[in-house]
Amino acid sequence: MPAGRRGARERPKPSAWAFAMPGVPLLFSFPLAMRDEQAGRPVPGSPGGRSHRGEDAMATSRTGTAAYKHWRRRVLARGQADGVTCCPICGVQLDYRRGRQPNSAEPDHIIARRWGGRETIENGRVLCRRCNQSRGDGRRETKPEPKRTTTDFAW
């Protein structure tokens, strides 16, 4: 057998990590996620099967999900139907046709997902891209109020 090539019997299964070096026998392997052979899906509680909250593990970003894309379309359509032509924060003219421009119309969560907001039509509004990105998830660094000194004396 040519160097660097293995036979089909020597290849580890794709669902297992194998610690092996060329010329050294396989010492051990362990599954990345235990799989239910009948259902063909990860077993709850296995490392690759569930998140720390017990939900199904997600391989994509939140903005790539079908639910988010549907919510985005609904919020933008409602904004156009309601005649929202300017950003309610800065007043710039919104562009519903082009994306990724400072004045592009983007859906915004009124209550951020981080703080329990959901992807419902009531929790959405249209902002320009610049305002939406500067708003972020609602966290703001607040400056502490300076201590006030009073000069009130009881005479």
UniProtKB/TrEMBL annotation:
HNH nuclease domain location: 70-133
Keyword Hydrolase recorded: yes
Listed InterPro entries: HNH, HNH_nuc
Segments of skewed composition (Basic and acidic residues): 136-155
Keyword line: Endonuclease, Hydrolase, Nuclease
Family annotation (Pfam families): HNH
GO MF entries: endonuclease activity; nucleic acid binding; zinc ion binding
Renumbered residue ranges of the record's region Disordered: 37-65, 134-155
Name of protein: HNH endonuclease
Species this chain originates from: Propionibacterium australiense
